[in-house]
Automatic annotation (TrEMBL):
<keyword id="KW-0902">Two-component regulatory system</keyword>
<dbReference type="GO" id="GO:0005829">
    <property type="term" value="C:cytosol"/>
</dbReference>
<keyword id="KW-0597">Phosphoprotein</keyword>
<feature type="DNA-binding region" description="OmpR/PhoB-type">
    <location>
        <begin position="132"/>
        <end position="230"/>
    </location>
</feature>
<keyword id="KW-0238">DNA-binding</keyword>
<keyword id="KW-0804">Transcription</keyword>
<dbReference type="GO" id="GO:0000156">
    <property type="term" value="F:phosphorelay response regulator activity"/>
</dbReference>
<dbReference type="InterPro" id="IPR011006">
    <property type="entry name" value="CheY-like_superfamily"/>
</dbReference>
<dbReference type="InterPro" id="IPR016032">
    <property type="entry name" value="Sig_transdc_resp-reg_C-effctor"/>
</dbReference>
<dbReference type="Pfam" id="PF00072">
    <property type="entry name" value="Response_reg"/>
</dbReference>
<feature type="domain" description="OmpR/PhoB-type">
    <location>
        <begin position="132"/>
        <end position="230"/>
    </location>
</feature>
<dbReference type="InterPro" id="IPR039420">
    <property type="entry name" value="WalR-like"/>
</dbReference>
<dbReference type="InterPro" id="IPR001867">
    <property type="entry name" value="OmpR/PhoB-type_DNA-bd"/>
</dbReference>
<dbReference type="GO" id="GO:0000976">
    <property type="term" value="F:transcription cis-regulatory region binding"/>
</dbReference>
<keyword id="KW-0805">Transcription regulation</keyword>
<dbReference type="Pfam" id="PF00486">
    <property type="entry name" value="Trans_reg_C"/>
</dbReference>
<dbReference type="GO" id="GO:0006355">
    <property type="term" value="P:regulation of DNA-templated transcription"/>
</dbReference>
Length: 232
């Protein structure tokens, strides 16, 4: 299991080191910075999964630091604030902080916030990560594991042969396949009569295209073959 890297940016050395000891006891790798400038330097050099940032610090405060890091990074930021910094706390949330903890706080309270934000961040990254065996081209999505095809979120019913043809083309967007190559790959035998490919392509178009006569996805390259057009 990957170890999460947490950055503590706090000008009070005792608080900084106390939080580090507790986080390390929970299995996290911890980096320390005494102000926003040091914090940004560490972020540039290390992979950080979450930052705990004090609002009031010399040289660069937590508000300005959070604004700068949000220009490039989307990992969670938990702000530390004193009760007298209510306005700054609201400002921090508005400019990109994900949560806040008011001083004084207990280690258990901080850990609960850290764990909650890391769970949300993992789910966010999972959504961004490309799914294996799922091919997405514009509004067309083919899920190999479920053997399902959708267009703009709506299920598309294909015959087994239609599905195999579409999958072959969708796995290679932009590449032109001759009718002979499609036949040999789908039927796994020598192509003798490829007229059936034209019929299947027409049927697939009727099912996935808004205007089959002016297709957006499944196109004919006259005299060469067929392809799935790449989508922006």
């Amino acid at each position: 299991m990957e170890t999460n890297h947490i950055l503590i940016v706090e000008d009070d050395k005792e608080i900084r080191e106390g939080v580090q000891i507790y986080l390390q006891s929970q299995g996290y790798k911890v980096f320390q910075a005494a102000d926003g400038i040091e914090g940004l330097e560490i972020i540039e050099k290390e992979e950080i999964h979450l930052a705990i940032v004090d609002i009031m610090m010399p040289r660069m405060d937590g508000i300005r630091m959070t604004m700068k890091l949000r220009e490039k990074y989307d990992f969670p930021v938990i702000m530390l604030s004193a009760k007298s910094e209510e306005v700054d706390k609201i400002t921090g949330l508005n400019i990109g902080a994900d949560d806040y903890v008011t001083k004084p706080f207990t280690p258990m309270e901080l850990m609960a916030r850290v764990n909650s934000q890391l769970r949300r961040y993992r789910k966010f990254l999972e959504k961004l990560a490309p799914k294996e065996n799922v091919h997405v081209i514009g509004g067309l999505e083919i899920n190999e594991e479920a053997v399902e095809v959708t267009m703009d979120g709506n299920p598309v019913k294909l015959t087994p042969i239609e599905y195999k043809i579409l999958l072959l083309l969708a796995k290679n967007p932009g590449r032109v396949f001759s009718a002979e190559e499609i036949y040999e790959r789908v039927w796994q035998e020598k192509a003798i009569n490829t007229d059936t490919i034209m019929v299947h392509v027409r049927n697939i178009r009727e099912k996935i295209e808004i205007d089959p006569k002016n297709p957006k996805y499944l196109k004919v390259v006259w005299g060469v073959g067929y392809k799935i057009e790449k989508q922006p």
